[in-house]
Amino acid sequence: MKNPLGRLVFLIVFILVAAYGYYTLRSPQGLPALREKWTEIRTMEEDNAALQRENDYRRKRIEKLESNPAEQELEIRKKLKLLRPGETSFILPDQPKPAVPAPPHGDSKAPPPPPDQD
């Protein structure tokens, strides 16, 4: 049989290491910070994927404009608002925005309507 004092020392060291590990993981720099970093990484990866899709779309659009003169001319005319002789451009007025119904008199918890952003 082994020395009981050695077992006791081993048990105390094991408990201290376990307590230190528990304290370290539960501290603000432990698991909560790790979860926050994972969330931040996932958000950045999603943003990067969205930017990559946008870049791919723009590359394809540029290739399409470079290879098709008619498409290029149409895009230039649209950006510069140019018309060919004999063409007519129609400018339609903006659609009126629907009125926001007023909240009931007893409901003061409703947030105010958002300001118009034209």
Describe the structure.
The protein has a domain at 4-80. α2 packs across α3 (69-80). It has helices at residues 4-26, 31-67, 69-80. The model has no long low-confidence stretch (mean pLDDT 83). It contains three helices and no strands.
Question: Quick recap of the structure?
Answer:
Helix content is 61%, strand content 0%.
Beta strand count: 0
User: Mean pLDDT score, rounded?
Assistant: 83
Looking at the structure, what is the overall shape?
elongated
Elements, N to C (H/E): HHH
Stretches where pLDDT is under 50 for at least 5 consecutive residues are: none
- Evaluate the radius of gyration: 33 Å
Question: How far is it from the N-terminal to the C-terminal residue, by CA?
Answer: 85 Å
Estimate what percentage of residues fall within beta strands: under 5%
Class from helix and strand fractions: mainly alpha
Helix content: 55-70%
Enumerate how many helices there are, as a single number. 3
- Main beta sheet: none
Give the helix/strand layout.
Elements: H1 4-26, H2 31-67, H3 69-80
Helix pairs in contact: 2-3
